[in-house]
Automatic annotation (TrEMBL):
This is Uncharacterized protein. Residues 366-427 are annotated as: Disordered. It comes from Acinetobacter kyonggiensis. InterPro entries: TPR-like_helical_dom_sf (IPR011990). It comes from the Bacteria. Residues 378-401 have a biased composition (Polar residues).
Length: 427
């Protein structure tokens, strides 16, 4: 038996070989099993005599010869189990030793292979690239084959080197799918650092501080930007364009920090300084939308578009604002804007559908109840349904109209009375 498999017995062994094997086996048995002092077999006086006679090479009768052979076989039978166990252990130990040696050989080969790889410039570059992709959360398998531009850009960002204008343009256009949040954050941080250094070289050039603050906003450092802008004295400045940019940027920073009132004040100052500039209008539109004053937000966005803001930039602003709202407020804002201008905000319908397609469990229950009521209740004429309205429904509706009039500063609410053309003529 080898490795758990029983090998077939050979039947082609010559007779002479069998005789030779038997003689050798008997000789071995005689050598190892005729020591009476070590034998575990039952010894009788007669067997001792026969064994002694056999050891002294005296002639034996046929019976005595047969007895000796039987004795030897019985001794061998006792010996075999321990022998087989020891042999199996030895084979297993040898197999284990060989396997260990083989594994060690493979390990050494792998080490040598790794050493060769680590000395290969191509492999080194690939490993660095993989590390950068992981660090900046770019999945190369989703993104497909990596262009050479992204490797150079990531290497620069990691070494705190500002990107060239061409690289920045590529990242915002052709390489947009690689512009992950971490890449974006690092890019704007390096831009901010550049303008901060330029401003330190010449504190009279406030434009560098404004540009630095704009970049700081984009890498979640609005508090740092506010401190920078507040440290600048602008009361003696006469350049309206500069002042407008300063107050617009400061207003945006304070919008980020949820300082709504001062943000509105800053944006209003910027608008008064440059009434034809769309940027303060866009800022005011965003602030009012975020504070749920949708009509005011809509009006300021319209002013921004009239002054040169693109529909795409305004829509991107709105998408960003809506994405941060909970479902209730999101739906409320969409409904309000659609009522204000159904055509301009028609693209919001898709966002509204997304909200409606994921209703709450409570809404599902209400819909199911309504369906069940429709099945149970027989169809009724419009006249019957109108007659069954609660008596106080007109009072409730009138109250809602009065609240709406108050909210929109109207002198008189809309009347619930039927128009004159609907009143019955007197007979």
């Amino acid at each position: 038996m080898i490795d758990g498999k029983t090998l077939p017995l050979r039947t082609d062994v010559p007779e002479n070989d069998l005789d030779t094997f038997e003689n050798k086996l008997l000789n071995l048995c005689q050598e190892y099993f005729l020591d009476l002092s070590k034998s575990e077999l039952l010894q009788t006086g007669r067997s001792k005599d026969i064994l002694e006679k056999y050891k002294e090479n005296k002639s034996l009768s046929n019976f005595e010869q047969a007895y000796i052979n039987e004795y030897l076989l019985r001794s061998l039978t006792q010996f075999l189990p321990s022998f087989l166990k020891r042999t199996a252990n030895k084979v297993e130990l040898e197999r284990f030793t060989e396997e260990k040696a083989f594994q060690e050989k493979l390990r050494q080969e792998a080490i040598e292979k790794q050493k060769l790889l680590e000395s290969d410039p191509v492999y080194i570059a690939k490993q660095k690239e993989q590390a950068l992709l992981k660090k900046y959360e770019i999945n190369e398998y989703i993104s497909g084959a990596l262009p050479i531009e992204i490797s150079e850009i990531l290497s620069k960002l990691d070494r705190e080197i500002r990107l060239s204008q061409d690289e920045a343009v590529w990242l915002n256009t052709l390489g947009k799918k690689f512009f992950s949040s971490k890449v974006r954050h690092k890019f704007h941080r390096l831009e901010a650092n550049y303008y901060l250094q330029e401003y330190k070289k010449n504190v009279k050039n406030i434009w560098n501080a404004i540009n630095a603050s704009s970049q700081l906003r984009k890498c979640q450092a609005s508090l740092e930007a506010e401190g920078l802008l507040e440290s600048i004295t602008v009361s003696d400045k006469k350049d309206k364009k500069l002042l407008s940019a300063y107050f617009t940027t400061l207003g945006g920073v304070r919008r980020d920090l949820r300082k709504v009132n001062v943000a509105i004040d800053n944006a209003s100052k910027a608008h008064n300084l440059t009434p034809d500039n769309y940027r303060p209008c866009t800022l005011l539109g965003a602030i009012y939308m975020e504070t749920y004053q949708y009509t005011l937000g809509h009006e300021w966005y319209e002013k921004a578009i009239e002054r040169g803001a693109t529909d795409q930039s305004v829509n991107a602003d709105l998408k960003s604002i809506i994405s941060k709202m909970d479902k209730t407020k999101r739906n409320e804002m969409i409904e309000h804007l659609l009522k204000l201008d159904h055509l301009t905000y028609s693209w919001l319908k898709s966002l509204k559908v997304a909200v409606v397609n994921n209703p709450k469990i409570k809404q599902n229950k209400v819909e199911q109840t309504v369906k069940a009521q429709k099945k149970v209740s027989p169809p009724q004429s419009k006249k019957t349904v109108q007659n069954k309205q609660p008596k106080n429904s007109e009072k409730s509706l009138q109250s809602l109209l009065e609240q709406g009039a108050k909210a929109h500063n109207l002198k008189n609410p809309a009347s619930l009375s039927k128009p004159s053309c609907m009143k019955p003529k007197k007979k």
